[in-house]
């Protein structure tokens, strides 16, 4: 919050910048203090310093401090309105008392002229009461004049505070507008970054699904690899050398089978011939040969 001068720190002032109910007093007895060039320049320098300090302080003010400042300004506006109304009432009462004072003086002079005699006489009771009232009115007028001066100085101080707070709020409003635009740009950038993050998250999820599928395929291929390794190991005995040897052995076996088939065919032909010859009536020589063959056969 803003620093307050020590002379104003103890004052309980509620300031309100709403001057709708303010009363403008036009009195010939109230005159502005004379202002020369030195006082104006010192006042301008003081206002510049106050403005610089206000700007420096406003840089540190956040939204909560601004709301507190606005509440304080409302209180000061209310106090200014109340003090203005009180000052107007005091001035009206002072004018009324001044009229009573003048009328009392005129009445006193009239009574003094009527009762002017060479022999000293005691003043009547009515004259004493009138003089007492005049003295009391005079004292009250002097007291009201002092209060009027105090209220005028207080009103001037409150007005200057109102102007200072209004200027500070104006600068703070400008700063807040710039901050709001910056915040809007940051929100747009954040929304774009969130969209990118969502896209990247979806892409990562897809890649993870693909990786899981590839891991399943890798597991299946490893199982197939083990089966193939087992089959290769089981077929290792049928290597290229063994297959060539087996092919050669098979060729030799086929050749042997062919030769055996030819031999079997020739043997069958001979057997058929022998059977045919056995069915024919044997000649004497042939009969002897057959008998010899049978004898030789086991």
From TrEMBL:
Record's keyword terms, sorted: Coiled coil
Coiled-coil portions: 73-107, 183-217
Official protein name in the record: Uncharacterized protein
